[in-house]
Amino acid sequence: MPAHRTRTERHDCTCAHHRPHGHQHTYQRHRCGCDACRTAWNRYIQNLRAGVAAGRTSYVPAGPVRDRLAGLTGAGWTIRQVAAVTGWSRHTLYAISQGRGSCRRELAEDVLSIRAEAA
Q: What is the number of other CB atoms lying within 10 angstroms of the CB of residue 80?
C-alpha cells in the first residue's frame, strides 16, 4: 500500500497534459505541498470566492448546449466528432446531452460556435 502523502512534500504532475509546479491542479490532484503549488491553490480559491461574491460564475445553464448538441446529432454529427472539434471530453458532452443542468462557460461557447454544415 502506498505511503500517505502529506501537504509538505513535493510531487510532480504525471497527467497527460502535464502541469508545472505553481498550478492549482498539482496541489489539488497530486497533493503537492510545495510553496508554489500552495500559493497557486490559495490564489485560485481567492479568485473563485471573489467571483462568486461579485455574481460571476464560470458555469452557465446547459439547456442551449443540449439543444445545439441535439441539432448537431440530428445533422449527422456524433458526440465523438463534437468532442474532437471542441477539445472537450466526449463523456462531458454526453452527460450534458443526457440532462446535466450546467456546464462551463467555455464549453458552451465552443459547442455553440460549431456550424452544422462543417461535418
A: 11
Read off the C-alpha cell for 104.
462551463
- Asked: is 59-118 a CATH 1.10.260 domain? The reply is yes
CB of 43 closer than 8 Å to CB of 53: no
Q: Are 37 and 68 in contact (CB under 8 A)?
A: no
- Domain ranges across the chain: 1-57, 59-118
- Name the region of 15 (left: φ>0; alpha: ψ -120 to 50; beta: rest): beta
Rounded distance between C-alpha atoms, residue 93 and residue 67, angstroms: 12
> Quick count: other Cβ atoms within 10 Å of Cβ 88?
18
Classify the phi-psi angles of 4: left when phi > 0, otherwise alpha if psi is within -120 to 50, otherwise beta: beta
pTM confidence score: 0.58
- pLDDT tens for each residue of 10-65: 766 666 556 778 888 788 887 788 888 889 999 989 988 998 888 888 889 999 99
